Amino acid sequence: MKFKDILTGKIFIKDSSEMDLVAAPKKNRKFSEDFIEKTKYLHKVFNEVSPSTLERWLDDFDRDMNPEKELAIWMHMAKTYEEVIKEFPNELNTRKGIFQVLLNASSGMSAEEIAQDERFKQLNLNENDIFLIWQKYNS
User: Sorting pLDDT into bands at 50, 70 and 90, what band is 6?
Assistant: First the structure.
């Protein structure tokens, strides 16, 4: 996750596994059939690289402040993901890397910031790959 130090203005990246995150409370929303169908699509597209149940997806959206906006972001990520994976080797590590680049791009990180993260080298992506994926997401 990307953070900005309010005193220095310096931006730094912290692995979410190092943080104590607390889930927002459930709001018990009743989602439309269209919202549920789109969530099923997201579940199907990302299940291999981010395994989660459909119920978890819906629960997470229920906890979002603006689930419609979040759904739109995730739909854009999914469309970009499906387009991009056609251009890379069919390897799980590569697909996980593509997903991570898209996730970081959706949070507003620049391609340069993402490329500085050493974890992407382990996911079979180089700097050019990261820039290509980021550009497709942001086009």
Answer: very low
| Stronger pLDDT, 29 or 137, i.e. the higher one | 137
Question: Residue 99: CB partners within 8 Å, gap ≥ 6?
Answer: 46, 49, 50, 81
Q: What angle do CA 47, 51, 57 make, to 5 degrees?
A: 80
Residue 135, classified by CB atoms within 10 Å of its CB into exposed (0-12), middle (13-18) or buried (19+), is exposed
| 20 vs 113, residue with greater confidence | 113
CA dihedral sign, ordered 89, 92, 1, 118: negative
Q: Taking the domains of the chain in order of start, what are their residue ranges?
A: 22-138
